[in-house]
Amino acid sequence: DAGVTQSPTHLIKTRGQQVTLRCSPKSGHDTVSWYQQALGQGPQFIFQYYEEEERQRGNFPDRFSGHQFPNYSSELNVNALLLGDSALYLCASNSFGFTYEQYFGPGTRLTVT
Amino acid sequence: AQSVSQHNHHVILSEAASLELGCNYSYGGTVNLFWYVQYPGQHLQLLLKYFSGDPLVKGIKGFEAEFIKSKFSFNLRKPSVQWSDTAEYFCAVNPGNDYKLSFGAGTTVTVRA
To answer: If pLDDT is split at 50, 70 and 90, which confidence band does A1 have?
Structure first.
């Protein structure tokens, strides 16, 4: 049973660039949420996708956008990168309407220089 | 906005000592409560969860947590820790009809052999 997978593992970008991170949910799950975890802090909710639509959004600027595909996988896009965007980006999945328990992937470590 | 507070930033224990980590949240309605653990180099894993029913819940690896509604608390306990319990522990909350998780800042637990 495949868990949540994310790619790439690590990424280094320069200020002002754009980045795309990818996530495949756990088998049987249809909902994907993205979180940002800065060093020494707990994860912060960015947004959630279900049925290819953004259902909820946290307190993040419009530079953060996403997409969900028909196979339930998802992308997180960040435009005009800032130094403060350096963080671990976590993807979590669950089965909508079945359980509130979310399963997390290993994350993508983004470094902005 | 709801928030989650974890009382301790870093806890250092000897093996066989008892562990208790505090977690308080600010949300007046029905909540779902979680404790996640992040072992060094690994992704977030669910330790235990509370949705409803018996306020004393048991999780994996001998951990348990008690939900005290009147105190808005969900403290994690383990009677006797092992060196392998060295990890970062996160308390998380979501409203009863929501999937957005709010995390505490985390507690780093170091167990000395």
So the answer is: low
